[in-house]
Specification:
Helix content: 25-40%
Largest sheet: 4 strands, antiparallel
Distance between the termini: 14 Å
Radius of gyration: 14 Å
Oligomer: single chain
Number of domains: 1
Strand content: 25-35%
Structural class: alpha+beta
Mean pLDDT: 87
CATH architecture: Roll
Low-confidence stretches: none
CATH topology: Nuclear Transport Factor 2, Chain: A
Length: about 110
């Protein structure tokens, strides 16, 4: 189940808002647009990521995204996504899950 969710999150992060005719609000805003909102860029990206996951990944609840500061002058931005997995195959039990997310210098989002 986690692998399926991860695959969906990766596809979601690779899709730009407005690029799907059927669901134009699906995906994330272009990171290049958000980067220019400094000093609040990290918070803007975290909010956009959390809102998109909450809206389009129904298997996850209580989605939280936080910026993970790095020491030094790193050009890679790190985020941690935590949520509760709603597992219908396990009697409806909930399980905590965490995904590491990075944005590299070329503004690509990686989630694992």
């Amino acid at each position: 189940m986690r692998a399926s969710i991860l695959q969906h999150l990766q596809a979601m992060c690779a899709t730009r808002v407005g690029s799907m005719l059927v669901r134009p609000e699906y995906g994330l805003p272009a990171i290049s647009e958000l980067v220019y909102s400094f000093p609040d860029a990290a918070a803007s990206i975290a909010r956009a990521l959390a809102a998109t996951i909450a809206k389009f990944e129904p298997r996850l609840g209580d989605v939280r995204v936080r910026h993970v500061p790095t020491e030094g002058a790193s050009l890679v931005v790190h985020f941690e996504v935590t949520a509760v997995l709603r597992d219908a195959t396990d009697g409806g039990r909930s399980h905590p899950v965490r995904f590491a997310t990075t944005i590299d210098p070329s503004r690509r989002i990686h989630i694992e």
